[in-house]
Specification:
The strands form 3 sheets. An 8-stranded mixed β-sheet has the order 1-11-6-9-5-2-3-4, sandwiched between helices. Strands 7-8 form a two-stranded antiparallel ribbon. Helix 7 packs parallel to helix 10, helix 7 packs across helix 11 and helix 10 crosses helix 12. The chain is globular and about 60 Å long. It contains 14 helices and 12 strands. The N and C termini lie far apart (about 45 Å). By secondary structure, it is α/β, with parallel strands linked by helices.
């Protein structure tokens, strides 16, 4: 059971009464007449082999209010794409699969790349960027939600609560971030949020001083959640980060573009679990280690746009402040786990804090060494300005793939 406390400067919408999903969906069905809704599912082909996505699709098949489902399919051959068409065919809603590795979409990608506006890295950021572009191209929705495809605790209530704030025409929210408790299997999860993001933001407040951006970021209960929703007019001007800073970068874009009274966060699940990344203690190129570096860089870059000047000495001070705050929080998390009958390994937690502390220095060094790094994919407004017919051609390419392989 949630509380009703409003923390920070971003509105929090709680789950106070466990309202039934049928009641929520009946209301959303009425709203769909004036605010048609889409869902974006960025997926690797490998996720079609697991049980989580199949369960998600089974739940989505019962959702009555969606006007469109857009699936971004990465790392897929022609046979994989054919299988994906069959896999998602049980969805009764209008749906299309973006075969990102197919010849038609790759050809369009190369044209966009030739003018310097295409994503340069493979990954979720690129997939999400193209999916949102397709939502613009199709014109079937005015509100869109996005969630991951590896949620093993999925229930369609998650989607209903996630999209409700931007679908209700009586609300003025342009963007909504989902949050939830991260525990499963008797363990407290959410390591990167608990052990990196929260203590790093608080350390930055100590070192560079409190500002509206840090207050904004500190308002989110789970800033790294992969679940959010928005009005489709947000899509044109949002820049999507291409690295592991996707979630932090997206929030930073919302802070840049909108007043906080147009943004909110909503409780979407009593518990949530998905596949877990390796920590990758021995490499900065993968797992939670790379994620921590990308997230730290995203925060440093945003603060630099606010006039914060960084140096090697600043980053050493940030690291020291972070380390003390994070270790104190480990004790807090341990006690929270114990009172709830959960397991938390203090030794493993502190090992991860030590890794993240090193990576704060590594992220700072990278930030100073590459001041011209541009991690954001250009927004769709800029692409449309350079290629006025890009959305029409994008939609036509997706439809041609469907017509050729899906019939």
């Amino acid at each position: 059971m949630s509380d009703f406390y409003q923390n920070g400067i971003v509105t929090t919408l709680h789950n106070l009464t466990n309202r039934t999903v049928e009641d929520l969906e009946a209301e959303l069905l009425r709203y769909a007449k004036v605010r048609p809704m889409s869902l974006v599912l960025p997926s690797l082909y490998s996720e079609l082999q697991g049980s989580a996505l199949s369960t998600i699709v089974d739940h989505l098949a019962s959702v009555p209010y969606l006007n469109e489902i857009v699936i971004g399919l990465d790392r897929a051959s022609e046979d994989d794409y054919r299988h994906a068409l069959e896999f998602f065919s049980r969805l009764p809603q209008h749906h299309r699969i973006l075969w990102n590795d197919g010849p038609r979409l790759m050809a369009l990608h190369q044209e966009i790349a030739a003018i310097g506006l295409a994503p340069t890295e493979l990954g979720k950021g690129r997939n999400v960027w193209y999916c949102l572009g397709y939502v613009l191209a199709s014109g079937r929705a005015t509100s869109v939600a996005l969630h991951d495809c590896d949620i093993v605790t999925y229930d369609r209530e998650l989607l209903a609560r996630l999209i409700y704030p931007v679908a209700n025409p009586n609300f003025n929210y342009e963007f909504c971030k989902g949050y939830y408790a991260r525990f499963a299997g008797g363990r407290l999860n959410g390591r990167v949020t608990r052990l990196l993001v929260t203590p790093l933001i608080r350390a930055l407040k100590k070192v560079v001083g409190t500002n509206d951006y840090l207050d904004f970021m500190d308002s989110f209960r789970y800033p790294l959640s992969g679940e959010f929703s928005m009005r489709t007019d947000v899509i044109s001007d949002i820049r999507i980060p291409s690295d592991w800073g996707l979630e932090i970068g997206s929030l930073s874009e919302m802070h840049r573009n909108y007043a906080t009274n147009h943004l909110c966060q909503v409780d979407i699940a009593d518990s949530y679990d998905h596949k877990h990344q390796d920590v990758s203690f021995d490499s900065e190129d993968g797992g939670l280690s790379k994620m921590s570096i990308d997230i730290a860089k995203a925060l440093f870059r945003k603060l630099a746009t606010h006039g914060v000047v960084f140096s090697e000495e600043t980053f050493r001070t940030i690291k020291a402040a972070y380390f003390r705050i994070a270790l104190d929080l480990v004790e807090t998390y341990r006690n929270d786990a114990i009172i709830n009958g959960l397991i938390l390994d203090v030794h493993e937690e502190e090992k991860q804090v030590e890794l993240f502390a090193r990576n704060i220095i590594n992220a700072g060094s990278h930030f100073l060494e590459y001041p011209m790094e541009a991690p954001f994919i250009p927004n769709w407004n800029r692409v449309i300005s350079a290629m006025p017919d890009v959305l029409e051609r994008f939609e036509a390419a997706v439809e041609a793939d469907y017509q050729e392989f899906g019939q």
